[in-house]
Amino acid sequence: MLYAILGDIHSNFDALGAVLEEIKKDRVDGILSVGDIVGYGAEPGPCIKTVSEVVSAIVAGNHDYAAVGKTDIEYFNPEAKKAVLWTSRQLSQEENRYLSNLPLIIELDGMTLVHGSLHLPELFAYIRTFYDAELCFRGLKNEVCFVGHSHVPVIIMRDSTIRAVNDPEVSLRDVSKAIVNVGSVGQPRDRNPKACYVLYNTAERSVKFKRVEYDIARASEKIIEAGLPPFNAERIRWGV
Ligand code: ZN
Questions:
Q1: Tens of pLDDT along 118-129?
Q2: If you measure from the C-alpha of residue 12 to the centroid of ligand 1, how many angstroms do you get, rounded to a whole number?
Q3: 174 C-alpha to center of ligand 1: Å?
Q4: C-alpha 10 to ligand 1 mean position (Å)
Q5: Ligand 1 center to residue 40 CA distance, Å?
Q6: How far does Cα 128 stand from its chain's mean position?
């Protein structure tokens, strides 16, 4: 099976549209998501509608839960907090219900999906160190865990040691367990502003990171026009 796995869309409908166009060419068997449909950007409604139509499995991100009051936003940065409050006001009852019902963990076809880490998933911890990764690996029953949250694409592999790679194509054939951060569709933070997603071939156990150009200027203008923090518009131009 060939899966496209994407996440951290963050209400960036221009980026989502470009990524879905590219996925059509990939001829995948299914689309999965590691969450954060909303937050930061200007088009939560269209993003929720589209995602709900195209994905076969999706977990909750911290911004998804924050927008519906299911997680505390005290520790969100000021720009994220403003966007969360703005997003909450835009959501219809149906959109609110959709986000509220997203699960924290999904296991399917030998894969696990979680937004932050399998270690206390409801706290949405970041995997920043090998120690963080080890805590996640301890909760991993499958061979591979797909995550988002940091918006930085990377693969952490564990055998007798733990190591990290960020090559565009990686085989996991000889690796016992791996955590794959799929990068971000709507707000990449690895200094590459192109939208990011992953293709995973379950038979070959191969991971391919794909980057897609989209109309960043338009997405950026929409953020300004909505009255959202200008930094949210600026950062998508630079991929930070
Ligand atoms: Zn995010």
A1: 999 999 999 999
A2: 12
A3: 30
A4: 7
A5: 9
A6: 16
Assess contact for 113 and 104: CB atoms under 8 A: no
Other CB atoms within 10 Å distance of the CB of residue 237: 12
How far is 235 from 220, CA to CA, in rounded Å?
9
Predicted confidence (pLDDT) at residue 75 exceeds the cutoff of 90: no
The answer to whether the pTM exceeds 0.90 is yes
Rounded to the nearest whole angstrom, what is the distance from the C-alpha of residue 61 to the centroid of ligand 1?
7
CB 3 within 8 A of CB 197: no
What's the one-letter identity of residue 86? W
As given in the structure block, the two tokens for residue 197 are 């997603």
Rounded Cα–Cα distance for residues 108 and 112 (Å): 6
Q: What mean pLDDT value characterizes the chain?
A: 97
For residues 182-208, give the mean pLDDT: 98
Counting Cα atoms < 13 Å in the Cβ hemisphere of 234 gives: 4
pLDDT digits (tens, 9 = 90+) for 36-50: 999 999 999 999 999
Asked if residue 219 lies in contact with residue 42, where contact means CB atoms within 8 angstroms, the answer is yes
CA of 190 to the centre of ligand 1 (A): 13
Ligand 1 mean position, distance from CA 205 (Å): 26
